[in-house]
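Might I ask for a little of your time on a matter of protein folding? What I wish to show you is a protein chain and, alongside it, a tokenised description of its three-dimensional fold. I should value your view on which stretches of the chain appear to form regular backbone elements. You will find the record immediately after this paragraph:
***
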Amino acid sequence: MGVINVQGAPSFSIHSSESNLRKSRALRKSISRVYCLQSSSAAVDEPKNITMGDSFIRPHLRQLAAYQPILPFEVLSAQLGRKPEDIVKLDANENPYGPPPEVFEALGNMKFPYVYPDPQSRRLRGALAQDSGLEPEYILVGCGADELIDLIMRCVLDPGEKIIDCPPTFSMYVFDAAVNAAGVIKVPRNPDFSLNVDRIAEVVELEKPKCIFLTSPNNPDGSVISEDDLLKILKMPILVVLDEAYIEFSGIESRMKWVKKYENLIVLRTFSKRAGLAGLRVGYGAFPLSIIEYLWRAKQPYNVSVAGEVAALAALSNGKYLEDVRDALVRERERLFGLLKEVPFLNPYPSHSNFILCEVTSGMDAKKLKEDLAKMGVMVRHYNSKELKGYVRVSAGKPEHTDVLMDCLKQFY
């Protein structure tokens, strides 16, 4: 209801005479009619003064483009008109063997799902300490490594401060920087996907960015950062966040222990690839003690679910299974690489991860190739970025997955 303007209304008093009473009643009726008209007019104009909900949103977030995730099985199944088991999913670097059998047993016997989880994930951090050789006080667990990327930015970056991104690489760094109102300085990789360390040094000196995000092995090409390049960057006045999501497939030892020596190094790891727990979202990181103190203060208290911690602990209990699955995926990666080299319109890049990046050549359109394979029930990854417009990425799966992929590719030549 609008505001009724009663300025200038005649003042009156009620007297006992019948004449004045009639006048008073008439005046009240007149005022009542004016009230209704004024109210109706205000109600019509009211939408012009409504505050829209999105005006409460921070301005930089109103411009944010949503992250484009990989579609899950049930959505793909509906779109393709195929049963989930009839889809060969090689687009998200998931572990097709899944977790060790101990995980299913532990989840089935979970006793206290109605009790909040341990905010410090003490049991899991203890197991990770045994697994990595790094003391638990250096380790923080998150709801996937993605949560830790965002947590690092929230703790480190003021609005307007900058990060260095080295494309092509994992797109979550740029996305989370945008969420946190940070700037991004892009230092593209060399043609062989190695880091342009000299250019990084120039940017650090001129632009004074706060941190740099590096992935090794890099997603999407599978290249690793040389120790020499990493040491050069660690000497720069910048926080180095080293994402080792795929380190198990590289044959290179993790740099988690380095955080005890380098105050400007953070190392991130995940259970998604190694242990087949992508759907349960468990990641972890190694941090210098001078940094981890503040992340403990800022993180959500119950960020790792009871189910996630139970599953991760069970996965770590069967190290042989994890090693066998890793070895199987590495063997299949090498087999896949050899087969892709025989495809006349693909140029695959050697990889130290569980996927292979392929340049699509000979006039073949990469996006259309991805779409045509999807119609056949085989999912591979295509990127819309300028660096990777003409590329597709193929995850290493089981041998039978590779066979189906190759049969489909042969239909194009």
